[in-house]
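SAMPLE LOG
Freezer: B-3
Tube label: C17
Construct: single chain, 393 aa
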Amino acid sequence: MTTTRTRIAIVGGGPAGLLLALILHRAGIESVVLERKSREYVLSRIRAGVLEQGTADLLRTVGVGGRMDREGLVHDGFDIAWRGETLHLDVRGLTGGRTVMVYGQTEVTHDLYDALEEAGVPVVHEAEDVTPQDITGNAPFVTYRTAAGEQRLECDYIAGCDGFHGICRQTIPSASIETFERVYPFAWLGVLTRTPPIQDELIYANHSRGFALCSLRNPQLSRYYIQCDANDDVANWPDARFFDELQARLPPAVAGNLVRGASIEKSLAPLRSFVAEPMRYGRMFLAGDAAHIVPPTGAKGLNLAVSDIHYLSQALIAHYQDKDDGLLDTYSETALARVWKAERFSWWFTSMIHRFEEHGAFSQRIQEAEFDYLTDSVAAQTSLAENYVGLPY
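STRUCTURE (predicted):
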């Protein structure tokens, strides 16, 4: 077995793990990132595309915002469609100038990879059987296997950034962690197509046939979603059927703008809300999807991971530079306070905009009242806008 040492062992090479490695490098703190898949696989994953104001600002601060600012699309607002009507939310005006940035998670990951490669920060791909060890002791380490054989990475701390199905959370004894979960009775069927978007800003649509979302990645790359049964199959949705259904759920004023095209990616995503707490066990810290999942309705998944990394990186920097462990000791409490607020918003937005067949007529009337209140109340619109652009760190 080959033994190496670093300060921070980061398990997971998605945007959370890569961002943590870059921030720590900028502060002179060494780390190693362990990723189970190849770099090509990581970069092929289609994920979120709406960045909160705070996420975009943090990427600029660590020096990976250049391409985002050149190619990303600043959005000042979005539309909510209901009963054939459309309500425009001016999030810039409602929040005192805050906006969101449309820039795909794949692009963020690509920018982080480039920055880490330039900086010489090691990212180990195709690391199999990654296992955190001696987490509650003073000398934690991670074992894993590569083509070169068995490896042992000794460290001061472990950052579990390995997603919902990763090993890090599973390593924590059940008596030391509590989980909270809500599984929704539907999924999102998503299609990516090389066509101009239906309009410049996003449209969230509620319809008797189910929810729909018109999003985009750039002026020639559109991302569309429709609500479907959680047990459905992508094979049941050829492109023609998908676009017919999408068009039927949109207001007539915008449905005619839909440009159809062959799908270049099609996937089914079940919806769930999930939180594990605490987000620390011994010398291991959880971040991102390893600790929490939100339904994609409010576009909070990647953004929550970034806020976790903000808190965790600041805590580790204070530990090494100032010999102060106060932020490490309160990391879980601090991160969870923001996590639960984002969970609440994502649950609320999901509940308001989707079709819940099993809830009956009363719940349908409540949904209608919710939309009517949102339409008539600047205060309600401001609350939605503040959460959409992202609560402060």
